[in-house]
Amino acid sequence: MTMKILAVAFLALTLSACESSTENANSSNENKPAATTPAPATPAAASPAATLASSPAAAVQLKAGDKVKVNLNGSSSEATVVSVDEKAAKVTVKVAGQKEDKTVALAAVTKQ
Question: From 28, 41, 62, 87, which residue has the greatest number of CB atoms within 10 Å?
C-alpha cells in the first residue's frame, strides 16, 4: 500500500513539474510575436555533399608521398603520406624518426 502511495505521489510531482515548465515557457513568450515563416535552411544542411566539400579536411587533396604535419599526442610532427582512405577519413603516414607507420584521422593532417 505504501508503494502505491509513493508511486502516485511521484507521478503527481512529475506531472506538476512538467506543467510548471510549460506555463513558464508560455508566459515568457507572451510579448514576442509568433513566427509566421519557417526559418531558412542552413547551407550545411542543404546536402551532405556540400558539407563534405566545405570541411577543411576534404578541401586538402592528399596523395602518397606528400609531406605533411600530423597532430600526434598533442604535438605536431613532420611526416610523409603512405596512403589515403577517403571513405574512412584516415591517412597512413610515416612519421620522421619512427620505424612504423601511423594511421590517423584526416582532420589531424595538415599539408605543408
Answer: 62
